[in-house]
Design goal:
Layout lengths: L3 E7 L13 H7 L3 E7 L5 H14 L9 E5 L3 H10 L1
């Protein structure tokens, strides 16, 4: 069991298959986090996606902290501004 983490990655993210590195969601799960990965593009509602991710973590038995989550994102600064204002 562990805390929740929300990963936000762009839809156009290209991951190379020629390395030994694991996918980010697998890496954080191996570290003991309960992981939700969101892929987002300009047409997606980031707020809706994050709301769904939080609800998923709240119901996930292996997530032992239900009221705060760690978030990592490779998204544009415009999205981060929306997150800071919108929540």
């Amino acid at each position: 069991m562990g805390p929740g983490i929300i990963l936000i990655t762009p839809k156009d993210l290209e991951l190379r298959n020629d390395t030994l590195d694991v996918l980010p969601q697998q890496k954080w799960a191996e570290e003991g986090y309960a992981v939700v990965n969101i892929t987002t593009g300009a047409e997606d509602s980031l707020k809706t996606s994050i709301d769904l991710a939080v609800k998923s973590l709240q119901t996930l038995e292996s997530c032992d902290v239900k009221d705060k989550y760690f978030m990592i994102g490779g998204i544009s600064p415009i999205y981060w501004r929306y997150l800071l204002i919108g929540f």
